[in-house]
Amino acid sequence: MIVTIDGPAGAGKSSIARLAATRLGFAFLDTGAMYRCVTHAALQQTRSQDAADPWSDPERLLQIAEGCQIDFDDGRVLLNGEDVSDAIRTPEVTRHIRFAADHPQVRTRLNVQQRRIAAGQDIVTEGRDQGTEVFPDAECKIFLTASPEVRAQRRQQQLAASGKQVQLEEVLADQNRRDLEDRLREVGRLRPAEDAVVVNTDGLQPDEVLEKVLQIVRQTAT
């Protein structure tokens, strides 16, 4: 069984999807982390004076993506064997992720990897277009959302927990820009699937959201 959980940044989909997978005994696939890995790898290369600029060179960015071996191990995100779980969550990566997310061939490459990982197992997968593009035939599709202010506050708290102090205004501005980019992109556009159940998480505690999600999954499975 494939359960897709899509939604905008800060809606809580990553943490809820991870918890839901644990409760259900399913595997968990963090697709957003895969795009962050490609972006992180590209940023690392921009720090080399001899490297071509990947942001203005789509072919170069694709080459970087093709060199990214992305794995998940007990909650950690590994990029070519290195733990980058924290490194891929920086504001700098967030500001540049659109270059990977908007690149059709990068998306195609990562989509193929996502389907390969999901093949033959029960899995909860989260992202922006899992229910619409990657797994259109998934048995259960959920779209988590929340108001921009609530999502920005959650993101600020997440950054603070990892030791990064960022003003709420900066987080909100980055988030609003990314929301617009996600809604307008030609491939992988952020939107609920026609058969997705939409859950607004404003005013809900994480355990309440989790129970709603689990209820939807169980109803779908029966």
Automatic annotation (TrEMBL):
The signal peptide here is none
Sorted alphabetically, the keyword list is: ATP-binding, Cytoplasm, Kinase, Nucleotide-binding, Transferase
Subcellular location(s) per record: Cytoplasm
Where along this sequence does the record place binding of ATP? G7, P8, A9, G10, A11, G12, K13, S14, S15
- Gene3D superfamilies (alphabetical): P-loop containing nucleotide triphosphate hydrolases (3.40.50.300)
Q: Which reaction does it catalyse?
A: CMP + ATP = CDP + ADP; dCMP + ATP = dCDP + ADP
Q: List the GO biological process terms.
A: nucleobase-containing small molecule interconversion; pyrimidine nucleotide metabolic process
- Record-listed E.C. numbers: 2.7.4.25
- What SUPFAM superfamilies is this protein classified in? P-loop containing nucleoside triphosphate hydrolases
Q: Which InterPro entries match?
A: Cytidylate_kin, Cytidylate_kinase_dom, P-loop_NTPase
- Gene Ontology CC terms: cytosol
Q: What class of enzyme is it?
A: transferase
GO molecular function annotation: ATP binding; CMP kinase activity; dCMP kinase activity
- Top-level taxon: Bacteria
Among the Pfam families in the record, one is Cytidylate_kin
Residue ranges of every copy of the Cytidylate kinase domain listed in the record: 3-219
Q: Family, per the entry?
A: Belongs to the cytidylate kinase family. Type 1 subfamily.
NCBIfam families referenced in this protein's UniProt entry, alphabetically = cmk
Q: State the protein's name.
A: Cytidylate kinase
What gene does this protein come from?
A: cmk
